[in-house]
Design goal:
Shape: globular
Radius of gyration: 20 Å
Oligomer: single chain
Largest sheet: 6 strands, antiparallel
């Protein structure tokens, strides 16, 4: 009699096998190779993610900030959140609260203090109470999705920094 046993792939999926077997190992290795290839593919033509010039709502906001037609204001308790939402035409009522143990700011996010995500059709803004940064992702016509952070410390001119780590 054989029994099915679960095996977890590097991507977090579950495979079922009969007593392990080479199929599970091969599937796991294939998954690892595919994930590594995908990470390398975004750095090849035509995407070249790290060096490409983004064209999205955030790069447009950065241009407006640079030429003085937009300004982000700091508010105690919310940092630049409300100002960023206004600048990106994102409604405060779009808020969704989420919690993930694998979050970038997991030391500040918990079931009692979840991350708030605000969104429209082009941009998502992630905010956590007392977080060091606000996280932003934007649909981009040339690179797919572009990721940014905004330092939440008060300052004269806040910097929206593109994240290119794969």
């Amino acid at each position: 009699m054989t029994h099915d046993h679960p095996a977890t792939t590097p991507g977090g999926g579950t495979l079922w096998s009969r007593r392990g077997g080479p199929g599970v190992l091969l599937m796991g290795l294939a998954s690892l190779v595919a994930a590594n290839a995908a990470a390398q593919d975004i750095e090849r033509d035509p995407i070249r993610y790290s060096t490409a010039t983004p064209r999205n709502a955030i790069s447009q906001l950065q241009e407006r900030l640079a030429n003085g037609t937009a300004k982000l204001d700091y508010e105690p308790g919310h940092g630049y959140l409300k100002s960023v939402l206004r600048a990106l035409d994102i409604s405060e009522t779009s808020q969704v609260l989420v919690f993930s143990k694998t979050s970038f700011q997991r030391d500040r996010i918990s079931p009692r203090t979840p991350r708030a995500i605000y969104f429209n059709d082009e941009v998502m803004v992630g905010f956590c109470n007392r977080g060091q940064v606000m996280e932003i992702s934007a649909a981009d016509e040339s690179i797919g999705t572009a990721f940014y952070t905004v330092d939440q410390a008060p300052g004269e001119k806040p910097v929206i920094e593109r994240q290119t780590d794969s």
